């Protein structure tokens, strides 16, 4: 008698494809890694990544030891980048105790003046330690506020206030 054809051996049920292991959640950089990462991003002009890195770092480390290249680069950065950084500084400046070192305060004040945010410059400079740099910054901020107010008056000629002879960007050079 003929035998029925043999059945092929049964296959095990198909398994779903293996999932790749879950990525661990992003962690803020260690404080000793932060300066190197920050410097590399600054050199590359990767402002968005630099701002994200700054947001993840602890406030005490975030603004410590700002390189001079940051000041030079920020004065030429896009206004949107300047606005975002200034907003971050204003938040950190409001912490108790404030975490902005003097160099960061001066840079924040210069950005505020450059962006015509004179009230913010006053806020930053009022919290800064007394120094000639602080005094110069306060004069520029007050002059900017006065000029903006006078220019809005219907009876005053535009630009009736004399321009200050000093350059507020000199605040960056102060110690």
Would you kindly provide a brief summary of this structure?
This protein is mainly alpha-helical and 175 residues long.
Calculate the mean pLDDT score and round it.
76
The secondary-structure class comes to mainly alpha
Topology, number of strands: 0
Please indicate the percent range of residues in DSSP E strands (runs of 2 or more). under 5%
Major sheet characteristics: none
Q: Helix and strand string, N-terminal first?
A: HHHHHHHH
Percent helix: 40-55%
**Low-confidence spans:** none
Termini distance?
Answer: 106 Å
DSSP summary: helix tally: 8
What would you call the shape?
A: elongated
Radius of gyration: 28 Å
Describe the structure in your own words:
Helices cover 53% and strands 0% of the residues. It is built from eight helices and no strands. It is elongated. The protein has helices at residues 34-44, 47-56, 59-62, 68-76, 79-93, 102-114, 118-127, 132-152. α5 (79-93) packs across α6 and α7 runs antiparallel to α8. The chain is mainly α and 175 residues long. The mean pLDDT is 76.
